[in-house]
Amino acid sequence: MHARRIARFRGVPILRVLIFGLPIFGVLVLAGCRPEIEFDLDGRQSEIDAVTVTATLAPDGVVHVEQRYRFASGEGGTLALPKDLVDESLTPQAIDAVGGIRNVTLDGRPVTPTQGTVEPELRVRAERATVAYDELGAAGRYSDIGVVRLDVLASPEDASRQDPDVDLSGTLVLPEGTPGPVDAHLHGGRDRSVAAEGSAVTFSAQAPIWQPSHSLDVALPEAWLSAMAPTPIASAGPFATEQAARDQADTSTEATLGGLDNQAELGRWILTAVAFGLPAIFWAIVVVGLVRRLRERKRVVGNVPDHLSDPPTAVDPAIVAVLDGEGRPAKTAVAGTVLDLARREAIDLREYGDRVVIKVPLEAMGVNESEQLVLNELRALATPEGVLEGAHIWRQPIRWWRTYRRDLVKRARGMGLVERWMPLASLSGALITTGVGMSVFFFTQPVVYFAMVFGAMIVGYIISFVSGYTLTDKGWRQRALWRSFARYIHDHGEIDKAVGPAGVVVWGPYLTYGAVLDEASAAARPLTP
User: Fold this and answer.
1) Which residues contact 212 (CB under 8 A, 6 or more apart)?
2) Nearest Cα to Cα of residue 421 among 15, 4, 1
3) Do the beta carbons of residue 175 and residue 57 sit within 8 Å?
4) Which segments of 168-221 does DSSP mark as H helices, in order?
5) What are 315-366's pLDDT values in tens digits?
6) What angle do CA 361, 363, 364 make, to 5 degrees?
7) pTM
8) Measured between alpha carbons, how far is 380 from 335 in angstroms, rounded to an integer?
9) Which 3 state secondary structure label does DSSP give 411?
């Protein structure tokens, strides 16, 4: 047997196991890590991922706010400020009534926001940024309580419903004063959490950036706003009523958003099932076909006798080389062709010691393309009289082997003995559905989507081509019969090392077929390229 057939797993070449097994393994791995499917064809708009807020309320009602932003990439994004800049031309009383922000800084440097359609905005070109400002008009002092209403996350104009929630968290530090009750509420977002401990209010939420505002409303002892002039009306009752209504509205909104998320999640799982289920069906077809092929192979060779004293068929030795090589003939096929030409007296082959002498008549013609190719190459090496001799007739590497082998495989396919090891139809179906399934997760990126779909088609052709040929059921049976004939030659003759090429006159088909079945090495060696 040839050394090239040693690397096998359960009778199947290791290369073919890898070619077949790796795509299936990849599908199984991907199935275990379901990617997120983005339904919006435009993708996300706002690039804000997280915001951490630190705010300090002064006794005069001014709130100093510091917001630390984290964006999706180093390209940054756009952020919004909660109010317009203070109109410094107004009187202090008017400024307190109208409110606004001043002293805006970006990473510690003063900056002037651009005015958006609704709110001022800043364009950041970094993955992280810190924005600070003073907000006026956010706090009010009444006869019974103090109130601060702080928009901790304003929505930029580029925000859209498809943007992921922002991880919002922060702390509001209240003025020091006589201990008293603090009632804090966070409006906007999901999974909201707000707690007051002493003079500090902590909060967190998963905040949809597209919501107009995310308001932190806090009622505190009015004496803590000692530097503000009180408004002589009671506000505790109206504040409690308003917060109860807003809390209820927040709960309803959160339930609605949760329902939409559940629908989107269901859609993702359905697409995931299609993305992995459809390829799984086609891969199952490929696997079942392979298993059926292996089982059928055992069946068709089950009643082959152990020895055959005569050649099973009259095919030329080169085709037997295709069968013995399981679709990939060895170069001993050339020796078999030369010996068969000599057996039919198309050429004259003699031996003188260790030298082989071949004479190629001008009128010699091959009965097929591969025979004619060998005759042409022999003539090219011969003298003008058509004679060539030597211990080895092929004195240099041959360049026509691929053409010769291609004709052998073509003729074997025509006889129904050989087929592609990996059938293109089922393989293409499996790979194309795999490509389509995987591209579902990237259909917001058309270039990637179409590249994966068409790439899968190309890969199918490549794998089918690279995997080479194997035998059909008929071919496996013929191979088993020829191996029985090879065993007969081995057990009942002494031609392997004792009979050279010229012995074809006596031994005939035993030598021509023995050369390609590795049972006539002395005859094959001088004639094998």
Assistant:
1) 155
2) 15
3) yes
4) none
5) 999 999 999 999 999 999 999 999 999 999 999 999 998 899 999 998 889 9
6) 70
7) 0.52
8) 17
9) helix
